[in-house]
Write a structure and sequence with these properties.
Blueprint lengths: L34 H9 L9 H12 L4 E7 L17 E6 L10 H11 L6 E4 L8 H11 L4 E6 L5 H12 L19 E6 L2 E5 L15 H7 L8 E5 L3 E5 L3 E5 L5 E6 L6 E5 L10 E7 L3 E5 L3 E5 L3 E7 L5 E5 L3
Parallel strand pairs: 1-2, 1-4, 2-3, 4-6
Antiparallel strand pairs: 5-6, 7-10, 8-9, 8-11, 9-15, 10-14, 12-15, 13-14, 13-16
């Protein structure tokens, strides 16, 4: 009988240790998780699996045609046009914004919900903010699931690192009877195939592989950098009163040059572990070998370096932003 790893959803195999689902042949009949998941959970050792993009597309194309309730999860720090993926589903969708605990407590949820409604034309039945680690709004989300599900199956979909597996583990802890938990990691593509968790007699949660964004900063990074970049606790916004010919150096990750002729205010939201230095634009050329992105912003705009930070800018601003080649840098209306 073909069996799946309870951690990542890959089918067990003993032929190739570089492929998903590998277990030693002597353990194949009794294994609960593959060797990759065992190492992630117990040693923090991550082995990337290079599945063809079409492999993931086939999974999502099947889900899009289903009539089961979908929870679309999005990390609060990665709000962009990928949310429009929601409109591909034929079923009812609840938008779940994760990692609420990482934002300053002063940020009001109703303002964020209004922002999403005003800036994205989404076909969703509800929007809810949660924190799986803090158990925030988990009961409320469960009530919404039970009131809106169209069958016993509910699918969890979203970008990699959106928190799907972490949410399922929170549900298992609060409502389930199973002692098995899904493997979670800060790195992309931890979940490799669908995993069905029978939470109760009338509810099964189906975890899916994360939608991998090659333009996200953490894609391709080593584990130590991912751990540094991904916020782990409530972030402390850092505000800089910028003068002409000043720049912000975000360690070795990015650089923001301020090119306007008047003073301005920049507030950065990013991991507390990352250092920022304000430098002279003309005398310090550090990181200018990276990819250049130029912007001429109206007032009350954010600059987003996808997966790394967003910067709230008060007034009109002309900027040069330098970051690694694959990373998406874009402007949007002030989120906060």
């Amino acid at each position: 009988m073909t069996r799946k790893c309870l951690g990542c959803g890959a089918f067990f195999q003993s032929d190739n240790p570089l492929k998903a689902g590998f277990v030693d042949v002597k353990n194949k009949d009794n294994a609960l998780v593959c060797k990759r998941c065992f190492k992630i959970k117990n040693y923090g050792e991550y082995t990337p699996i290079d599945n063809d993009v079409r492999y993931y597309e086939n999974i999502f194309n099947k889900i899009k045609e289903k009539k089961d309730l979908v929870l679309f999860l999005c990390d609060i720090f990665t709000l962009d046009e990928t949310l429009n993926y929601i409109n591909n589903f034929k079923s009812k969708v609840i938008l779940v914004i994760t990692k609420k605990d990482l934002l300053p407590k002063s940020v009001k949820e109703y303002k964020l919900i209004n922002y999403i409604k005003q800036n994205y034309n989404l076909n969703v039945i509800d929007i809810i903010f949660i924190s799986s680690n803090k158990n925030y709004n988990i009961d409320l989300l469960m009530n919404k699931i039970m009131n809106n599900k169209t069958s016993n199956k509910v699918y969890l979909v979203g970008n990699t690192n959106a928190g799907k597996s972490t949410l399922i583990n929170a549900f298992i802890k609060s409502y389930g009877s199973s002692s098995s938990f899904i493997t979670t990691s800060s790195l992309p593509a931890t979940t490799l195939d669908t995993i069905e968790i029978n939470l109760t007699e009338d509810l099964s949660l189906i975890d899916t592989p994360g939608i991998i964004s090659n333009d996200n900063y953490i894609t391709g990074l080593k584990l130590s950098d991912v751990k540094k970049i991904m916020p782990k606790k409530e972030i402390k916004p850092r505000t800089y009163q910028m003068k002409p010919n000043q720049s912000l150096l975000i360690e070795d990750y990015a650089r923001i040059d301020y090119l306007s002729s008047t003073n301005n205010s920049f507030t950065l939201y990013l991991s507390n572990d990352i250092k920022i230095n304000r430098i002279n634009l003309n005398t310090n050329n550090n990181l200018r070998n990276l990819k250049l992105n130029s912007f001429n912003l109206d007032k009350r705009k954010d600059i987003v370096i996808n997966g790394l930070l967003f910067c709230k800018i008060t007034n009109n601003a002309k900027l040069n932003v330098y970051t690694k080649n694959s990373v998406k840098v874009f402007e949007r209306n002030n989120l906060i």
